[in-house]
Amino acid sequence: MLSRLTRLQALAVCALPLVALLATAGLAPLPFSVAQPGMTADVLGENKGTPVITISGATPRETRGQLRMTTIEATGPDARISLEDVVDGWFRTDQAIMPRDSVYPSGDSTEEIERYNTEQMEESQDAATEAALRYLGRTDDGVEVTLRLADVGGPSAGLLFSLGIVDKLDGDGSGGDLTGGRTVAGTGTIDADGTVGAVGGVALKTQAARRDGATVFLVPKDECADARAELPAGLRLIPVTTLKGAVDSLTALAKGKGSVPSC
Fold first, then answer.
1. Is residue 261 part of a domain?
2. For residues 185 and 214, is the Cβ–Cβ distance under 8 A?
3. Is residue 104 part of a domain?
4. Would residue 101 count as lying in a domain?
5. Would you say residue 171 lies in a domain?
6. Number of domains within the chain
7. Which CA distances in Å does 189 have to 64, 98, 160, 261?
8. What is the arrangement of strands in the sheet containing 236-240, beginning at the earlier edge strand?
9. Tens of pLDDT along 115-153?
10. Which contiguous run of DSSP H or E holds residue 125?
């Protein structure tokens, strides 16, 4: 049987590699990004002095309320994230530690990432416009929509773009606003057929939404659990799977009639 001294010596020798590993991890950059709530923008209004939605070929409605798209901010692809950063972010509710590859395509330069995000935003805007005009039955009416949103990339504003177009052209279908005068926020990709897709980072986006005055948040149905995880007080979640479902829910909420789904 090993003596107590021998056991302590053996333990010390075995612990040395672990200590060295932890020390190295504490100094070496790790493949993560630190994300936090980002900016929001009202698609019914202006962003940096420019209307987000401009319509020609039809007279847009005067709208009340707000439809705010939401974002997250993440450390850049070249940022050095340490073990201390990861541990600190793990226990905070206003930050999230995300694999860098889930935020930035692996191996791409900053310029390539920016170009990719810009392309995704442009494709999202085209799909959002087509989805809204299809929903309204106005694809052949000569209506043209221009969407401008500075310094934002990716496809996650698609649902809010479509809702903004619907609100400006038709509202709730009977002269009222989709928002019912509220500040509504949300997130979600959208296909040309009106299908809403998941985006990621929804727990941080709900915080950004509430910070900027939203009382209602539209979330892709598959991400309800994530949205509930750190849901700010005073923010109501409405799950959506399609543009039509989102419009129906907002209309029911605005008019106080019909059922409004919840997560």
1. no
2. yes
3. no
4. no
5. yes
6. 1
7. 24, 20, 9, 19
8. 96-99, 32-42, 66-74, 183-186, 216-220, 236-240
9. 888 899 999 999 999 999 999 999 999 999 999 998 888
10. helix 110-136
